[in-house]
Amino acid sequence: MKPIPAHRPVLLVGMHPETQDMLRDALSLLSVDAGSIENSLNGKNFVSSGAQPFLPKFTLVSVALGSDVLGKFTEAQETGNPFTLVIIEECSGEWEVVRDLVEGLWKCDQTLRCIFCFSSNRTSWPHRLLVSRPEQWAVLRVPFLEEEVFQLACCLSLPFPKPVEPVFNGETYSGQNDSSSIPCLDTCANNGEEARGELKPAHVGLGASRYVDNILRSMADSLLVINADMTIGVVNPSLLNLLGYQEDELIGASPGLIFGEEFSQGAIIENLLLQGSVSGVESSFLTHKGQKITISVSGSMMQDLQGKFQGLVCVAQDITERKRMEEEKLRLHEQLLEVSRQVGMAEVATGVLHNVGNVLNSINVSIGVITDLLKNSMVRDVGRVSQLLDKHREDLGAYLSQNPKGKQVPGYLGKLSEQLNEEQRVALLELERLRENAEHAQQCVMAQQDLAKASGMTEQVCVAEVVAEALAVNQKILEETNVEVIQEFQEVPQLIVDKHQLLQILVDVIRNACQAMESVAQRHLVVRIKLIIGPPDSLALEVQDSGSGISPDDLTKIFGQGYSTKCGGRGLSLHHGSLMAKNMGGTLRAHSEGMGHGSTFFLDLPGNFHFPGL
Fold it and tell me: Which of 131, 403, 494, 517 could form a disulfide with 523 if both were Cys (CB 3.0 to 4.6 A apart)?
């Protein structure tokens, strides 16, 4: 047998700084108490016998996962100071890299032992640990106890012997992990002399068994191991506390005792046998009192090295509270939708009232300007001049030609005329503004009235007839702008829809298209009706113009209330058209290649078709 190394190099691969610091503390001689090692190994009382356990010194070398790990490992072998243990921290999404690295290390050294460090977060664990040489690797969950990781490192860094079957109370140990046959630490005198003897291999197996048992008992999730004969083999305290059973009541019983109907129907077992593992399958447990607990089950099928079925390992989480929260979330979501609908209606009304308020402010300003103009008007001077001329009626010619004051009258009348003309111009301008603002206020009120109409008043309509009616409404502007109309209609069934809202959308979109083509020479308007085969079936109405186009930044803004790309535009028609499209279960959207390339408006409606005779 190879000598026991007192100085044991350990290679740390891909370690996070926190994990690396924990390992350095755990494998440091100063942080380990000899008495605790003695107790954890369940060994002899070295203190009473006058001998202290020989604690090996570990030299830690850290390398990154992506660096030349194999080169570092080979270099250590060539220098005569090979690594006795490799500890690798698994990174999420890099398990395949870790597996290939370990297999490569074993090609260099067939006796090498490995430890895989996994975080306590189960979502980062690999789906299946498909690594060869199961007797030469172990799993360590981070965070860990310093005494346990020190003991594990001591055992795994010993020379690799031939497998030995440990014996417990005259019966052969049948554990699956062959690492239980690894001999334990040698004991040496404090002066560094050679070991006087070796602990029995059973001590190592017992220590490993206690370590695994401690892990199982510390699990927050419920663990259930099903034997090959479909009986319960292992349960952990979390499962017992969740279901209210005693361990002896479950061991050897059928899993159907706690799984209920889901297990008896075979869904979980079938998935495990066909897929090898399942993750996050929703099922339920039955407690000792018959209460159903909703759980999320993840499991894997156990096989030996020859691929023979050994049983099933299932880990379950109680998701009763999560399901309750999901139902509560759904209920709150429905309430939120209703509140949002009401808030949306209030927002539209508030917006319209806000617009009307702004118009009224403009009207008040115009009225104030006209009032001040009339108060300070020089029209009264016309009467004064008239009285002066009437006073000198008998000698009016002499008065105007010889009297100094009379000579000023003609010039004054000219200036008075200019002033009165200016007052008239300002008054007419303010009156025009009053008229425009009054018209705007009327449009806002009409828009609010349209939105306040009862929805759901649907009827069977011919879509082509509605489009023709919309074109007829816009016939005057089509003729004035000399627009060529091209109709591309597919034959579609009658549509069950709110005809008033559909007609209003088409009228506004066609009018906007005509206005967009006023600045271009070629004016073509294409109106299409398309049937979109589903499921679900739908109807698409397209209005394409050859106008000035829409910039990419404005493609969505134009549907906002009050936003318009036209000079003097009110920004109401497309906004209300979008709202009416949503009321009908559809959408109103726009597309343009940019300024100067025209635009196309799409009205997509659900295919609520009427088929006579069905």
Answer: 517
Give the integer Cα–Cα distance in Å for 378 and 4. Answer: 121
CB of 495 closer than 8 Å to CB of 459: no
Positive or negative: CA dihedral 183, 189, 190, 191: negative
Is the N-terminal amide bond of 404 cis, ω within 30° of 0? no
CA distance 436 to 445: 14
Distances in Å between the alpha carbon of 216 and those of 26, 32, 121, 212, 213?
Answer: 22, 24, 15, 6, 5
pLDDT, tens only, 16-69: 888 888 888 888 743 333 333 334 333 333 333 343 445 678 888 888 887 788
CA 198 to chain centre: 58
- The edge-to-edge listing of strands for the beta sheet with 609-610 is 459-461, 494-497, 609-610
User: Average of pLDDT values for 587-602?
Assistant: 91
Nearest CA to 313 out of 128, 136, 130 is that of 128
Phi/psi of residue 559, each to 5°? -90, 0
Q: How far apart are CA 474 and CA 511, in angstroms?
A: 6
Whole-model pTM: value is 0.33
* H or E element that contains 416: helix 404-452
